[in-house]
């Protein structure tokens, strides 16, 4: 059960090697969390992530989960919920893709969309149903500021996150009043392994800051969280820039 | 597993405690008779059932996510009153408000009055609530002559004090069975007025001294600490202590002489359903505290006040918990044994100056009940509500928990919404006894609440 301050006792991270997912898990373990399920493709990295959380004193289980295989989601994630209540589901998987290469490789581009959007829709629905059956819980969906407006530099990734973002907003409205809470998190550029070597953008943030914002959002039962918070205003302004001008902006 | 989002049917309701934090969905069923309660317990579904009264528990004691919540307020019959012997036999869903309305004209009163009279008899027993008379009268369970308990095996047992099941049920948070009815012992009163002495204490040491020095002279004693005061004034408080006024003590011309047992509580309009957060924070709270502290007389003795104003002024406003704002409030209620005043000083200093309303209530406790989850112990009890949105609140309260446990104190289970399970186990060394009794009584885990899930009870 989550306590009155939204701190969970059990956590399911979809995308068990995600830097934000692990930072959030570490933060939650420091508070209340005793059980963590890390879902991801079986790999040494997943086992290493599990070991790092185990060292903090949590009971960690890994779940074989592949975003690109929606047919298996119900069975794999259902087993997690059957083993006990899950207070918070963190939908943290996603691939950034390589915009330049993917534009000339439609299969790779479709894989980005399949992971970030289709896979997340399937996993999100499975988790939402299970949370609803247990009558409580939060589904935290990691979107991106790239979902707000298409950018020349990453519109394949951005479009997949835009789809996910709208899906999560709608799911949150569908589940309003059922005790299940859906929170959309929109971080800016996150400095992590996945973005190493890429030029840093303004309003960059870190996985730890995102984790802190997730914790605060859970306490407040927020529906949308921006990291850093100033991005809410910045993107609101950017959204209204006329397209001829927007095209020339270095975003 | 339901994958498609489904619209919950009409019985489903997102429930919170009085603090309005972390709602969970449950199927609410309102039984009308003990037979209907028994039927509900026979088919509890996969996630069990728990009884709920008027929802005044602050945290998650009377919620059951995904399961069934039995709204017991339908069982509201008063079966017998013996005014001469001072006994009432009533069903569990009867509120203390209803009992007062009924009993005061007969010259009887309820034995223990918590901070609100809108609690049910069943809830008062399950939470083993206490009032300002804890130091003289103990908690609610001490005044129960017998109770009827529907245990999860479907049997209705008459449980009397002195048995392990009775001890576990008083303060047992509804986890040993569903309380169907109880026979209560009632004290006699001559009027519905209180004779009240009010004093101001300038700081915490002054307050502790005054409380320790004079409490034995009063039946009811509480102090409200203004926790916004800092520095030398940290812990400044208003002491309110009193007794039921005897008829002969009323002045000759006093209007209550004609109708000494009238009970007419004030009822104000409720706040609107949405109250913005932060209304009670910062400057407005500071102003409220300062005004309230200064409006209280420096010292006034023997003033007559109506019961409702003395015991539960907040009950005049229905749904006053809306004033907490959309974020809700987190309760913190603990007791520290005598001799550990330095820990109390440290805690008051740490929370003084943060923003919250209403003020904290400090009182002296006498011995607690015999149950494994009995909250009271001889010492100082402090109760306060903090806005859930306060930054760093979780870490602060966790740190305070450690200090309280270290000093041999406890937090109150029914007034809790966030303690760590392992800290609770340290505070209640007989917790395993309670778990063992529950395992024997309820092998199928029929009785489950969000609190029992959170704390692994």
Automatic annotation (TrEMBL), chain A:
Domain of life of the source: Bacteria
The keyword Oxidoreductase appears for this protein: yes
EC annotation from Swiss-Prot or TrEMBL: 1.1.1.333
InterPro entries: NAD(P)-bd_dom_sf (IPR036291), Sc_DH/Rdtase_CS (IPR020904), SDR_fam (IPR002347)
Keywords: Oxidoreductase
SUPFAM superfamilies recorded: NAD(P)-binding Rossmann-fold domains
Coiled coil regions, renumbered to chain: none
GO MF terms, alphabetically ordered: oxidoreductase activity
Membership in a protein family: Belongs to the short-chain dehydrogenases/reductases (SDR) family.
PANTHER family the UniProt entry points to: 5-KETO-D-GLUCONATE 5-REDUCTASE, DECAPRENYLPHOSPHORYL-2-KETO-BETA-D-ERYTHRO-PENTOSE REDUCTASE
Name of the protein in question: Decaprenylphospho-beta-D-erythro-pentofuranosid-2-ulose 2-reductase
Organism: Streptomyces bikiniensis
Biological classification of the source: Bacteria, Bacillati, Actinomycetota, Actinomycetes, Kitasatosporales
